[in-house]
Amino acid sequence: MKICIVGTGYVGLVSGTCFAETGINVSCVDIDPNKIDKLNAGIIPIYEPGLEHLVKRNMEQNRLHFTTSLKEGMEDAQAVFIAVGTPPDEDGSADLKYVLDVAKEIGQHITDYLVVVTKSTVPIGTSHKVKDAVQSSIDKRNVSIEFDVASNPEFLKEGDALNDFFRPDRIVVGVDSERAKNIFDKIYKSFTLNRYRTIYMDIASAEMTKYAANAMLATKISFMNDIANFCEIVGADVEMVRKGIGSDSRIGTHFIYPGVGYGGSCFPKDVKALVKTAEENQYSLKVLKAVEDVNNRQKERMFAKIIEYYNGDVKDKKIAIWGLSFKPNTDDMREAPSLVLINLLLEAGAKISAYDPIAKDEAKRILGDKIDFAKDQYEALLDASALLLVTEWREFRVPNFKVMEKLMCNKAIFDGRNIYEPEELAELGWYYKGIGR
C-alpha cells in the first residue's frame, strides 16, 4: 500500500515516518527544496525523541521517500494526506490558503480514485472547500475521476509523539463513503490488530473533535491557573488542591498542573480558531474566550512577581532563565511563555541569561542577540539576581543549590512550574515564589 503526505512539518513528518514504520510505502512532499535535500541526507528539521532513528531506518528500508514533486508523490497512492500549516489570520481564524493550494494541485495530478485526507487542523466545514478545490481542477482538465474527502485529525503530543502514534487513545476518522472507510481500514490495520480504537464518524464531527479536544485541555490548564492565583490570595496551596481534585476519576490528574500558561502550535491557535468559527456562525463560546484571557494574563504572572520582589525596579538586574521551549522534549518556541516573559523583562531594563537543552538555536533565531545564551544551566546563573524557571526540563528538577548559591549574587527563585519545594528552599535561605503556593 502507498500513501502520500503533503507537508514535512511536525504533523507530516511524524505521521509519514510512523506510517512507514507499519509497513506502508510513504512519499512525503514539501515545496521547500532545502528541507527535502536535508531530509534525504538524514537531517531532521525538528526535534522529537526517537524520530531521527525511525526516519533513517525507514529510508534505508525504502519505505519512506522525500520529494518536492506532488505528482511524483501521488503516483500509485491510495490516499493523500494534507498536513500543511494552517496559521492564524489577524482575526484568529485559520488560514486555509496552503490547504486549498494543495487540494487544487491534487486535482491537477489525480489519475485514479484516491482519498484526499485533511490531517492538518482545519475549521469545521473545510472538507467541502477541499472537495470543491479538487473537483474544480479536475473539471478544468475535462476528465471524470472519482475521489473522496476525509478527515483524520492528529492527537500527537510534542515530545511524546511516537508513543502517541503507536499507542493512541483513539484514532478519529471522518468519512462519508464506505469506499473511503475501506482505505482507512487498510491504513490502520496494524492498529486494529492491537485493539486500538478507530472511531469512524461524519467528517464535520471529526473536524470538531480535534478542536474540542484541544479546547478542553486548554480549559483545564486555564482553570487550574485561575484557581492557583486565587489560592495565593486566600492562603491555600494549589499543589494540595491539585492532588485533592485529581483523585476524582471524573476530573483526573492530567492537565491540572498550574504554571506560566500554555503555548505551542496547537492550543493557542486552535482556541482562537474555534472561537472565530463560532462567531462566524453567530454563536459566542464564552468559556473559551475566558480560557484565552486567563492564559494571556498567566504568561505575565511571573513577571509581576519579579517586579514586586524588586519594588518595581529591575533595571540592569541579571535574570537567569531555565527553559525556553513551550514544553519539555521539544525545540518548539511557538507561543512560548518564555518569549512573553523575556520581552517584558527586557522592556523593564533587565538583562537575561538563558539556557535550554534543545531550543537554543530556535530561540536564537527568534531573539537574536537580545539576550545571552548559556552553554549549561549553571553558566546562566553567574552573577544572576534571580532564577526564573519557565520550562520543566528533567535536568532542572534536582539542581545543586549549594553551587547555585555560589554562582548567584542573590538567592531568589521564581518557579513557574512548581517543581521545587518551598519548605526546603526556605530552610536553605532562599526566597521562593511559585504559582498558587
Task: Describe what you observe in this structure.
This protein has 2 domains: 2-207, Rossmann fold (3-Layer(aba) Sandwich), CATH 3.40.50.720; 301-433, 3-Layer(aba) Sandwich (Rossmann fold), CATH 3.40.50.720. The strands form 3 sheets. A 6-stranded parallel beta sheet has the order 3-2-1-4-5-6, sandwiched between helices. It has a 6-stranded parallel beta sheet with strand order 11-10-9-12-13-14. Strands 7-8 form a two-stranded parallel ribbon. The model has no long low-confidence stretch (mean pLDDT 95). It starts with a strand and ends with a strand. Helix 1 packs across helix 3. Helix 16 (360-367) links the parallel strand 10 (351-355) and strand 11. With 437 residues, the chain is of the alpha/beta class. The longest helix has 32 residues, at 203-234. It is built from 18 helices and 14 strands.
CATH homologous superfamily designation of the largest domain: NAD(P)-binding Rossmann-like Domain
List low-pLDDT spans.
Answer: none
The fraction of residues in strands falls at 5-15%
CATH class of the largest domain: Alpha Beta
- What CATH architecture label of the largest domain applies? 3-Layer(aba) Sandwich
Oligomer: single chain
The largest pleated sheet is described as:
6 strands, parallel
* Portion in helices: 40-55%
What structural category characterises the helix and strand content? alpha/beta
Shape: elongated
For the record, the count of structural domains works out to 2
Global mean pLDDT: 95
State the end-to-end distance: 55 Å
Number of strands: 14
Radius of gyration: 24 Å
